[in-house]
Amino acid sequence: MSRKLAVVTGGTRGIGRAIAEQFAKNEFDIVISARNETDLAATKHAIEAQYGVKCHVFQADLAIKVQSIAFAEFIKSLAQAIGMLTNNAGTFIPGNVYEEADGVLEQLIETNLYSAYHLTRGLIPTMIEQGSGHIFNMCSVASLKAYPNGGSYSISKFALLGFSKVLREEMKDYGVKVTSIMPGAVYTDSWAGSGIPEERFMTVADIGETIWSAYSLSKNAVIDDIVLRPQGGDI
After folding, report:
1. I need a surface site. Which of 63, 81, 146, 223 has the fewest CB within 10 A?
2. Which residues sit opposite 177 in a β-bridge?
3. CATH fold of 5-228, please?
4. Diameter of the chain by CA atoms?
5. Residue (of 8, 48, 63, 2) closest to 31 by Cα position
């Protein structure tokens, strides 16, 4: 029997890479997307060499609708059950609504919300037909509480959480689980050089292991929302 697929957008670095590796460790074939072809090739080689599973890669900018749809078609062409989809692709631009550059809201909505919306819509019919599957939407503590300099980023993450909650209601009768993930500060490249001690942050492995734990529950249980914060509180 073929393995189930674990699909992770933005899967070559940071949180996305940790999630992909967590599922590869548990014998899922992996499907990842990213914009950088070199990063995709390197990640594919590393995962396949270390875990002995297949890692399919797809170069795309998922902020562009036609590329999100193309990625969904690529996943379906593999003709394997979709066990998990994590909508992790996203970007952060700091600023305040009243002074951020024109076009920032559109850019963040396209990357942080529309990418998840269009890819999920492309894969949902397959999951409904299977009667199974688990969708994780990578929201943020910024989805729960506005903060200074959050601007349109926080708006986009509030919207992603709304999308996730709507999807959860719609999928209840089809055996498809939906979980919203709201992490606080996780140590990734974007925090390097910040001057804040690394031990003050959560690790990317914390997120990967949390998602695996939520996925591993019986078919009768689903965690609607997961909020994770550094032990010392938000940064």
Report:
1. 146
2. 134
3. Rossmann fold (3.40.50)
4. 55
5. 8
Cα–Cα distance between 228 and 60 in angstroms, integer? Answer: 29
Q: Percent of the chain having pLDDT more than 70?
A: 100
pTM of the model: 0.96
**Cα–Cα distance for residue pair 148/70, rounded to 1 Å:** 37
User: Is the confidence at residue 235, as pLDDT, over 90?
Assistant: no
Query: 151-171 and 115-130 helices cross at what angle (nearest 10)?
Result: 10
Strands 134-138 and 82-87: parallel
Tokens of 214: 């939520």
Q: Which pLDDT score, from 0 to 100, does residue 37 have?
A: 97
Residue 99 has pLDDT above 90, yes or no: yes
Contact predicate 199/214, CB 8 Å: no
- Report the distance separating Cα 221 and Cα 201, nearest Å: 29
Q: What is the DSSP string of 22-89?
A: HHHHTT-EEEEEES-HHHHHHHHHHHHHHH-S-EEEEE--TTSHHHHHHHHHHHHHT---EEEEEE--
Per residue in 179-214, pLDDT (tens digit) is 999 999 999 887 877 889 999 999 999 999 999 999
Q: What digits encode the pLDDT tens for the residues 115-131? A: 999 999 999 999 999 99
Please tell me the distance from the alpha carbon of residue 165 to that of residue 170, in angstroms, as a whole number.
Answer: 9
Domain ranges of the chain: 5-228
Which pLDDT score is estimated for 190? 75
